[in-house]
Amino acid sequence: MKEIIPDNILKIQKKLANFEKDSRNYKKYTKILAKHIKSHTMQQRVKAHIKVIETIQNLNKK
User: What superkingdom does the record give (predicted)?
Assistant: First the structure.
């Protein structure tokens, strides 16, 4: 399965590339990017857990 990076994360990364390292905006956008990545990985985890639960339920029915 191919991982797709969401548009919001790509936009933040492009914006972050324009700033000087250790500038105020760079630090600000780094925090924003971390928040978006964290929520994205949590969504992926939840989806994976749901798939595992559904698979186990299907196996138990058989």
Answer: Bacteria
Q: Which has the closest alpha carbon to 16: 35, 31, 37?
A: 31
Instruction: Say how many domains are in the chain.
Output: 1
In a domain, 30, yes or no: yes
Instruction: State if pTM tops 0.85.
Output: no
Question: CA 11 to CA 29: how far, in whole Å?
Answer: 11
List the one residue out of 13, 36, 15 whose CA is nearest residue 44: 36
Range of the domain at 50: 7-61
Helix/strand/coil (H/E/C) assignment for every residue in 1-62 = CCCCCCHHHHHHHHHHHCCCCCCHHHHHHHHHHHHHHHHHHHHHHHHHHHHHHHHHHHHHHC
